[in-house]
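Hi there,

I know you've been waiting on this one. I reran it after we fixed the sequence typo, so this is the corrected version. Both the input and the resulting structure follow.
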Amino acid sequence: MQQQLVPPWLEKLLGTAFFSVCRTHGAAARSECNMYCLDCNTDAFCFYCRSSRHKDHQVIQIRRSSYHDVVRVSEVEHLLNIGGVQTYVINSARVMFLNERPQPKSGKAVSHICEICGRSLLDALRFCSLGCKVVGIKRNGNTSFMLEEISSSTTRMISSSSTRRGDDELREGSQQDIYPPTPPSTSSTRRRKGIPHRAPFGS
């Protein structure tokens, strides 16, 4: 049952080490191994390996945020049911983390946390990453990566989270993105009186 709920390539992807230098194209400019082929389901490879060995294959690109691997939602949403996983907006693209990220404990109260690792979440979702969802499926079996499991409510929740920005380490932009503008005060503002008009002289 669990094998049906988790695609066979996903766990291999989550355990793959990315961003090492390609052994074949190490001297080239784009030699970092940040690509993964779903058809071959092997190791990560670089841009040049894709052109020569995976030209007609299904390939996704892994990116990084704060030294952690992320994938764009647009690259996996047609492959996986990503419902219940927190998304963030980074560089105008909606992404999600591959695996859980360690989070220092703080005294602040949080409204939503990941069911697996306890990381704080922005929205009322269940998991902070794809890896935590895999653990949740194996532990409880009450969710799935299969696309037919997506409900209309989950779709609305994913759409809502796409407009949110991440926490402080993911935010990009000015303080206007974080703090709402203060409305102008009207308490000390006086209304300007009308211009007085002199009565006409009598004849």
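Quick highlight: Strands lie at 35-37, 59-65, 68-72, 88-90, 93-97.

Best,
R. S.
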